[in-house]
Design brief:
The complex is a heterodimer of chains A (334) and B (328). With 334 residues, chain A is mainly α. Chain A is built from 15 helices and 2 strands. Classes of the chains: A mainly alpha (334), B mainly alpha (328).
């Protein structure tokens, strides 16, 4: 096999997610009322894309956070709560003079990373299952968030917020640029580092990885910490959009659940060891676009949850086609 | 290595019932500890009325956790609990609009809707081989979508039927709430199912290694699908009882039951990876969580503090006895 075919096989999930997203987003753009009335002008497209990008950005960040943990064959049911907690923290401290704001941003990101590190430490040294650990820590993080913001409120440095949610040169959504920077600064170095390769290795087989001398513990710890950091960036970003902090249980939970959906749409295997955060980003963008398609077609918003659910169900059922390739029935139970 | 031998030496000195299941013993010890702490705060904690009231509140979670336990024993998970509970409640209340017949069939109808959703989960997991975490999430979304469309986004106006209210709040035996009796019946049924039938043995077998269970001639896919159907039915039954208790169904009434039901099963010593666990442990876990919630609310702890303590207690109890073997 040629080199590029290996690459293609490895990136199949990511490319599929990209394809779904491009298709959905084209339909979305073409039928969007603002574009239908104004035609395909740069302003109209940039406007619509910016709104869509800002909404999808949050889920993309949380989905990336989920990916890092899922690659190690774990699951993080607390990402949504880390997201909520950092949102509440940011609504207190990302204010004031530029220096104060900068310190606040750093503190918020550190708190996100710390939450992830706590999850990682309990999973590694406490030897508990990731799923139950993160259920419990998620409750703790939500409790702290509620302590900080019993009622929605707070504020944020609006200049900074507008910079990160606006557009560069009037065309490029700032959130997408930020996302690109995050991929370049966090995801690519991680996935090419020893810890990153270790995370993939331990996701496909922990015993084999351990036997081959992969630094299993360090890999897992780095993955969980970076996951917390990414969820923290998400929390910071939601503060930029809303200018407030809110400890909403339902929204935190929804982000957790949607992140799992986005990760799966993005071609990341829940059994660990395969997939990439870039795929998860496209999965998140596609998932958000699917949800918004209904508005474009002017359906009753009441039907949105059902439509989203049915699309999700169909999307995950597509993986069942892999069963046709199974030669030995025992492979069902892989 | 030496660590393991010392601990096994300690274990061998303990009485037999603790040795067999240290998790269940610890969970019951923690229940006693909670009751003791509660009684320091207020005399009422040890009164039979209070304890029966707690058991009644626990029975809703208990019935939902029973289904969750079956699924966890298989090494799967059911994340569709929130909206299956709500579906059961809403559909049972909806049945009352059919008049007298509706009142009679309201309870079975609600449960049947849950079984249907559970079959969907089970079909996806067993036959399409979709990871349970994903397919149950999708089922949850579909159930939510259906209920939002049905109710128009508001809590429906139908009220719970008399049989539902009787099951949830009545007293067939004086001073013993019916909900507790219902939980006892469900529990007895599941204990019988798990320990005395081939289905039960198959559940444990599949939880340990589905491949081996398949090779020993078990129709593993049917067993998995059945377990999910039972789980869906019990979650919906929990919802029916909750609606009877509150006398009507509400949007997102099931949200508060997903994490506690998983926590209760795991605190009761059932291995989250499947294959090991007893129903007695789940009972202990359910009572433990209900007592904890009740004591915190009696102490007028704000919601924030409750969430934090709740999380800390789950992590620390699991660190006590839920740890896995180190990979050496």
């Amino acid at each position: 096999m040629k080199e590029w075919r290996f690459w293609l096989a490895e990136q199949r999930g990511t490319l599929l997610a990209l394809g779904i997203f491009v298709l959905m987003f084209t339909i979305y753009l073409v039928y969007h009322p603002a574009i239908e009335s104004q035609g395909f002008t740069t302003t109209a497209v940039a406007n619509v894309s910016n709104t869509a990008a800002n909404k999808a950005m949050l889920l993309a960040l949380v989905a990336m956070a989920q990916t890092l943990v899922v690659i190690t064959a774990g699951i993080d049911l607390s990402v949504g709560m880390i997201f909520t907690l950092t949102n509440c923290v940011a609504s207190w401290i990302v204010v004031g003079s530029p220096l104060q704001t900068a310190l606040g941003v750093v503190a918020v990101l550190l708190i996100g990373a710390l939450c992830g590190a706590i999850n990682g430490a309990i999973v590694i040294y406490g030897r508990l299952q990731p799923i139950v650990t993160t259920i419990a820590t998620g409750a703790i993080y939500f409790g702290i968030a509620l302590l900080l913001r019993p009622f929605p409120g707070g504020s944020v440095n609006e200049t900074l917020a507008d910079f990160f949610t606006g557009r560069f040169f009037g065309v490029v959504p700032a959130s997408m640029v930020t996302l690109l920077v995050i991929v370049l600064v966090i995801w690519l170095p991680f996935s090419h580092s020893v810890a990153g390769r270790g995370a993939y290795a331990l996701g496909s087989s922990e015993v084999a990885a351990y036997m081959s001398g992969v630094p299993v513990r360090r890999a897992r710890f780095v993955a969980y910490t970076l996951s917390g950091l990414l969820a923290g960036i998400g929390g910071l970003y939601v503060t930029f959009f809303t200018y407030t902090g809110e400890a909403a249980y339902a929204s935190g939970n929804a982000y957790t659940l949607f992140s799992i959906a986005a990760v799966v749409l993005g071609g990341v295997s829940l059994y660990g060891g395969t997939g990439s955060a870039i795929g998860a980003i496209f999965g998140a963008l596609a998932f958000r676009t699917i949800g918004d398609l209904l508005f474009v077609f002017d359906f009753d918003p009441l039907w949105q949850p059902l439509f989203q659910g049915v699309v999700l169900m169909l999307a995950v059922s597509l993986t069942a086609f892999g069963l046709f390739r199974v030669r030995n029935r025992l492979d069902w139970f892989a | 290595m030496s660590d393991a031998t010392t601990s096994s030496r300690i274990v061998s000195k303990l009485p037999s019932f603790i040795r067999r299941d240290p998790a269940v013993a610890t969970a019951f010890a923690c229940i006693l500890l909670l009751l003791f702490l509660g009684s320091l705060y207020s005399e009422n904690f040890l009164s039979p009325e209070y304890l029966l009231q707690q058991l009644k509140v626990a029975s809703f979670l208990g019935i939902i956790a029973t289904g969750m336990m079956l699924v966890i024993l298989l090494g799967q998970i059911d994340l569709s609990v929130p909206w299956v509970v709500t579906t059961g409640a809403m559909m049972a209340c909806a049945a009352t609009s059919w008049g007298g017949v509706g009142d009679i069939v309201s309870v079975p109808f609600g449960i049947l809707c849950g079984v249907g959703l559970g079959l969907l989960n089970g079909f996806g997991v067993a036959y399409l081989r979709i990871p349970s975490m994903i397919i149950t999430l999708a089922t949850n979304a579909v159930a939510q979508g259906l209920m939002v469309v049905y109710s128009g986004g508001f809590s429906p106006r139908d009220f719970a039927s008399p049989p539902m209210r009787y099951l949830a709040t009545g007293f067939a035996i004086p001073s013993v709430p019916n909900a507790v009796i219902v939980w006892a019946i469900v529990g007895a049924g599941v204990i019988f199912l798990l320990t005395r039938t081939t289905f039960g043995r198959a559940v444990y077998g599949i939880g340990n290694r589905e491949r081996a269970a398949y090779l020993s001639g078990i129709n593993t896919r049917r067993v998995v699908m059945t377990a999910f159907a039972i789980s869906g039915g019990l979650a919906a039954f929990g919802g029916v009882l909750l609606a009877g208790y509150a006398s009507k169904a509400a949007q997102s009434m099931g949200d508060a039951y997903l994490l506690p039901s998983i926590a209760a099963v795991v605190l009761g010593g059932t291995n989250i990876l499947g294959g090991r666990g007893t129903y007695l442990g789940t009972v202990a876990g359910v009572i433990l969580i209900t007592l904890l919630q009740s004591i915190l609310s009696v102490m007028q702890m704000p919601e924030a503090g409750r969430q934090i303590i709740y999380g800390v207690v789950i992590v620390s109890m699991l660190l006590l006895y839920g740890r896995q073997q180190a990979s050496r």
